[in-house]
Each structure stands twice: as structure tokens, then as C-alpha cells.
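Researcher: Good morning. I'm working through a list of sequences from a screen, and I'd like to move beyond sequence-only analysis. For each chain I'm collecting a predicted structure so we can compare shapes side by side. This is the next one on the list. No need for commentary yet; just the structure.
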Amino acid sequence: MLHYALVFFVVALIAAVFGFGGIAAGAAEIAKVLFFIFLVLFVISLVAGLFRRGP
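Model: Good morning. C-alpha cells for this chain:
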């Protein structure tokens, strides 16, 4: 999922360079959402790993 966030970020950068403001904003927004979803899933997996390991 982090890979897709980076891909959309690169698409946003390229679109911004060529002057496509709407496409750049849309791709940046998608990249931002995917990054936050990745962070939430990462934290959940860390917490689940801590509880699974036990004392």
C-alpha cells in the first residue's frame, strides 16, 4: 500500500510540473489517504504483534 501511495505522489509531482493542477491535486489527495491508511494498518499490526508475543 505504501508503494501505491508513492506512485500517486510521483504522478502528482509530474502532473504539477506539466501544469495539470486538478490532476496533481487529485493524485496528491489519493496519495495522502493511502499513506494514512498504511500508517493505521502499520500501528495495528505493531500492537497486535505486541499482544501476540505475550510476557
